[in-house]
Amino acid sequence: MAKSSYEQRGSVLEVENLSLSYDGKTIIKDISFTVLDTVKVGSTQGQTVAFVGRSGRGKSTLFRALSGLEQPSTGTVKICDMGKFNGDNAHIPLKPVHEGDVGFVDQKYTLFRHKTVTQALHFAMRKSNLSEQEKTDKINVHLEAWGLKNVRNQYPNELSGGQRQRTAILEQLLSSGNFIILDEPFSGLDVGNIESVKKAFNLINGSHELNTVLFSTHDIELAIELADSIYVVGHPRLSSGELAAHGTILKHFDLKEMGLAWSTEFNGEHQALAKEIKTAMLAS
Ligand SMILES: Nc1ncnc2c1ncn2[C@@H]1O[C@H](COP(=O)(O)OP(=O)(O)OP(=O)(O)O)[C@@H](O)[C@H]1O
Ligand SMILES: [Mg+2]
User: Fold this and answer.
1) From residue 168, how far is each of 98, 159, 184, 223, 231 by CA, in Å?
2) How would residue 61 be classed by pLDDT, with cut points 50, 70 and 90?
3) Using one digit for the tens of pLDDT, what is the confidence trace for 120-136?
4) Domains (ranges, CATH) in the chain?
5) Best substitution site from 25, 54, 60, 73 to test ligand 1's pocket, by max atoms within 8 Å of Cβ?
């Protein structure tokens, strides 16, 4: 099978020496990584990055720091500054992240109780420069594409878990632009909902070159299927042989480089990678 050819341009996310402590207890430490804009000739290709790791290793904590919801104890998080982006993706301007810059959907996918799906999406677009008619048109296109057209006038308590989930993702997408972080977007969903959210990933990825999705999951196969890059978060082993009490990035798998990204099949190489990732997780 021919490997997908691609190129990498400027960075859309730069994380340097990040650490975060709660009440003097270090939760995550020594976290540095960069996400580059990936370009594929002939198609719009966003970035999809998965974070996997055992429970309590710091994935959600890392996400709160990446989205600006939590001030890190050390280090910096910089994301692309769309306001200054002039289309030259070899030189993408960056800015320190602030709360609200990044769409963040936590596992509870909280929605406004008193707003219908359509009302919530209009509210999400309140800061947009589009006219009311343009907003309505855009929302309608999304409602159709995300399978929410039939429930557009329903309130959160009248939605299924998967419909709530997709509304929450869409809300973040419409309000925050090109960067979205999803904490365990697949947990608790049925096979059909999982397919819808997978489709949502592809929609996000295909709609703007700089669109970047970061997500966490306990489903390693799903991470491999969807992501073009996977980070394993875990407790590092100290020189004493014991595991440290803080989380950090232990391994990075670049599926593009390995020729495993954007694949239509899950082959033996994907299976071998799943095994390697699980082994790394179990040891941390
Ligand atoms: N607000 C907080 N105050 C103190 N400790 C916290 C706080 N939030 C999280 N922690 C601790 O930080 C560690 C990492 O938690 P975190 O939620 O980031 O893990 P996780 O990798 O997302 O786990 P899971 O896979 O179960 O969601 C845990 O030991 C947790 O108890
Ligand atoms: Mg978590």
Assistant:
1) 20, 12, 13, 20, 25
2) very high
3) 999 999 988 899 999 99
4) 7-108+178-191+207-282 (3.40.50.300)
5) 60
